[in-house]
Amino acid sequence: MAHKGEKDEIATTATALLRLAQLGRAFGVYLVVCGQRVGSDLGPGVTALRSQLSGRICHRVNDPETATMTLGDTDPAALDAARQIPASMPGTAIVVSDGGRWYRARSVYVTEEAAEAAATQHAQLAPTWADLLTGTDTVTVTDAELEALAREGEPT
Q1: What does each C-alpha distance from 137 to 29, 89, 126, 132, 148 come to in angstroms?
Q2: At 30, is the secondary structure helix, strand, or coil?
Q3: Are 89 and 76 in contact (CB under 8 A)?
Q4: Tell me, what's the pLDDT at 62?
Q5: pLDDT per residue over 80-107, tens digit each?
Q6: DSSP-derived 3-state class of residue 98
Q7: Rounded CA gap, 109 and 87, in Å?
């Protein structure tokens, strides 16, 4: 946060992120949450948010605090491994599964042009909204019902 006056805004944002994660989890939606130095600036909500995420990925970090913010209470060797990834190996990360095991992984660089070409090549496979909604029974859900579902997914 830039100054103390933003504390309420940060708390509101952190709560909204947590609620989104809880609702997503309740509906079986997998979330990919990305951030840079996601940690204590979000307040106590960051720990609750992290607990809603099954797997975690941490790219090269410079300090133990950043690794801890991302990987949380996983194996201390994973924290050390995240700090030991050299700058000469971009795309390398420590990946922690929901079972607590960690792995060293390396992603493949895909250029923007290659991604656009793949999207264009396979665009005909994407359904339209009309196709998705045709023949489907829709149900209206109230805010109270969504909140009740989110509470069911909260850790106890």
Answers
A1: 20, 49, 21, 11, 22
A2: coil
A3: no
A4: 81
A5: 899 899 989 888 999 988 777 899 999 8
A6: coil
A7: 15
Burial class (CB in 10 A: 0-12, 13-18, 19+), 26: middle
d(CA 108, CA 128): 30
For 30-46, the pLDDT digits (tens) are 777 777 766 666 666 77
- What does the alpha-carbon distance between residue 21 and residue 15 come to, in Å, rounded to a whole number? 10
State the Cα–Cα distance between residues 131 and 31, nearest whole angstrom: 24
C-alpha distance from residue 51 to each of 62, 73, 96, 114, 149 (Å): 24, 10, 13, 35, 17
Residue type, 149: L
Q: Please report the sign of the dihedral spanned by the C-alpha atoms of residue 37, residue 56, residue 75, residue 40.
A: positive
Q: State the Cα–Cα distance between residues 51 and 25, nearest whole angstrom.
A: 11
pTM above 0.85, yes or no: no
Q: Whose CA is closest to 97, among 79, 76, 64, 71?
A: 71
| DSSP bridge pairs for 102 | 96
Q: What is the DSSP letter of 58?
A: E
